[in-house]
Amino acid sequence: MLPERDRYFPPVIAGIEAAAVHTRTTIDLYTTGYADRGWDRLTHLADHLAGAEGLLITHPGPADAATPAHTRLLRKLPLPYVLLERTPSGIDDPSEHVSTDHAGGAYLALAHLAALGHRDVALACRTDSAPSHGISTGFIQGAATLGLSVAARFDWPSITGRANFEDVLAAQPLLADAALDSVLGSGATGLVCFGDMEGSALLAPPAGPGCASPATSPWSLARTGTSPPSRCRSLRSRRRSSGSAGWP
Known about the structure:
With 248 residues, the protein is an alpha/beta fold. 37% of the residues lie in helices and 15% in strands. It contains seven helices and eight strands, in the order ααβαββαβαβαβαββ. It has helices at residues 10-22, 35-46, 68-75, 102-115, 132-146, 165-186, 196-203, and strands at 55-57, 81-84, 96-98, 120-126, 149-156, 190-194, 220-224, 232-233. It has a five-stranded mixed β-sheet, with helices on both faces. Strand 4, helix 5 (132-146) and strand 5 (149-156) form a beta-alpha-beta unit. Helix 4 (102-115) runs parallel beside helix 5 and helix 6 packs across helix 7. The radius of gyration is 20 Å and the shape is elongated. The two termini are 31 Å apart. The relative contact order is 0.12.
């Protein structure tokens, strides 16, 4: 059971299916959606899985760990389960889990920037997404470990639960301008960004006319998400675009 089949999940699904072939296991894939409606659908599906022997669950979130109430719901499921890309809710939660080390990934991104000579770094991080907390924690701890100065942080509004994905895409260029405006003004020369769509928006042409300007300092951007965090790109500086950087 997954919240969706798009964006992050296609390679996860491919890995599950490849493992299933080797173990002669039959996989049925269900999607739930996110937030409260996702939890309702998860509960409904779990009650009607005749013949299933176990569950792989990426629960609807929005956080990496379920709330106490949702944890109790998971514990009442009629089948053994493994949390996929989700972590137990606490030390008293015995749920099996397999998940990406998001904090470690943020550290690797920072270590790469440090190796390039960057000392003042910033974070642009999507909010209200399951990996966000781990990435933020790894960024703060990693900067301290590596002796880097955290110059700025930009909280990028989450795409989770947005009904109109076209509006989400339309907002990205203005949000990218706002993020760069904040980061460039802070004096940072290295930026860690989560996730892929946000990183792509930062590398795209500016949103408004007359916003582009030549790069005046060596910049690097490291993206965390489905792309390897050690891959860095140069980042052109921009001036503020006219218009609102909020959601349409």
